[in-house]
Amino acid sequence: MATASGGGRDTSAGAAFAALESGNFAGASDQFRRLLASGAADAAIWFGLSVAHRHLGAAFDEGKALDEALALDSSYVPALIRRGDLYEAQGDRRAACSYYEAAVRCAAPLTSLSPQWRREVQRAEAAARRLSKEFESHLLGRLSTHGLSDAGAERFGRALDLLLGRRQIYLQQPKAFYFPELPQTQFYDRRQFPWAAALEAATADIRLELEALLSSGRGFEPYIRRSPDRPSFGNPLLGSLDWSAGFLIKDGHEVGENAARCPLTMAALRDVPLCRIAGRTPSVLFSLLRPGTRIRPHCGYTNARLICHLPVIVPRDCALRVGNETRAWREGELVVFDDSIEHEAWNLSDRLRVVLLFDIWRPELTDKERSLVAAALEAVSEFGGPKSWAD
Question: How many CB atoms lie within 10 A of CB 20?
Answer without folding.
Answer: 22
